[in-house]
Write a structure and sequence with these properties.
The protein is mainly alpha-helical and 351 residues long. The protein has a single domain (19-191, 207-350), classed as A middle domain of Talin 1 (Up-down Bundle), CATH 1.20.1420. Helix content is 79%, strand content 1%. It is built from 14 helices and two strands; from the N terminus they run ααααααβαααααααβα. It has helices spanning 3-14, 18-27, 32-58, 63-74, 76-87, 91-120, 128-155, 160-184, 203-234, 239-251, 253-264, 268-293, 307-323, 331-350; strands spanning 124-125, 328-329. Strands 1-2 form a two-stranded antiparallel ribbon. The protein is globular. It starts with a helix and ends with a helix.
Length: 351
Amino acid sequence: MTYAVIKKLAFKYLWYIFIPISIWLYLAHFNSISIFIFALLAIIPLTSNISKSTHQLSLRTSTVVGSLLNATFGNAIEFIIAIFAIQAGLVALVKASIIGSIILNILLLIGLSILFGGLKYRDQIFNRASAGVASTMLIIAVAGLSLPTIYAVITDKSAIIMSRAVSITLGITYLLSLLFVLLTHRHLFVAQRDTTKQLIWGLKKSVLVLLVSIGFAAIESHILVEALQPIINATQIHETFVGLVIIAIITNIPEHLAAIGYGRRNNITLSMEIGMNSAIQIALFVAPVLVFISPLMACEMSLAFTPFQIIAMILSVMIINYIGADGICNWFEGVQLVAVYIIIAIAFYFI
């Protein structure tokens, strides 16, 4: 075994040391900042394992099912963190992470995929039918999340009941969209199969790695949330910024790794499907589920967000709709999407 291989393996497995360290720091009641940092670092190799095992499973399915698998398990850690955060009463952080995840997947994930793919290929063509359906679903997400917010702002009343009704509608729409994509009109969503990566794990190993990684991710998510409250109280960083930027980035690493890889292999259609499907799933499925789960934890959550969060989401959906209209992209369009995300993140830091 050469030195280069040993060095690569050492770097690869070094990340796993943060898992026992973070657990030990938590049990030893170290300061919250140290626990938070090591828990964040521990989540990175877990998200990497989720990405790899999901990719191995997706190779056994169609490209559309594969993108849905990446989106679903990419959102698993975010969903787990949201559960623990609601339990801790950090509803504002959960709402911010929902909007942050939507914006991040639409702008940063797709933007980086287009950018890195565009550095290798002058122009990349993607499936306009797939992008069109996803764009319409994102507009539905905007309507579903905006109207309870507008109601709460204008009437100064609780939007809980309205949010539940809207959540049912969004959830049913999402399930029907899966029926449309996977069964009745699946011929419209044929993306290029990724042939550069082969099956290297068996089915049992892929499922085992996925389940074990999600299990440890749940432990690290609990530790992360437990350490977060004292940090928010002791620092000037608002929980909205933490949820919208920091938590959103950490919990979406699997999709980023997969999508950027597809972009580099000239399969930008799959990259866009991963990003858009993830954003749609967060808005139309994860958020509604959290609305109904939250009362079980004695902390009701509505779909009433802050006006600035809704404006940021609307701008993101408008931009991706415009870029996805012609069926072709280049590296500079990726730069534009990333730039908009950075601007939004900066704005939320100062709010």
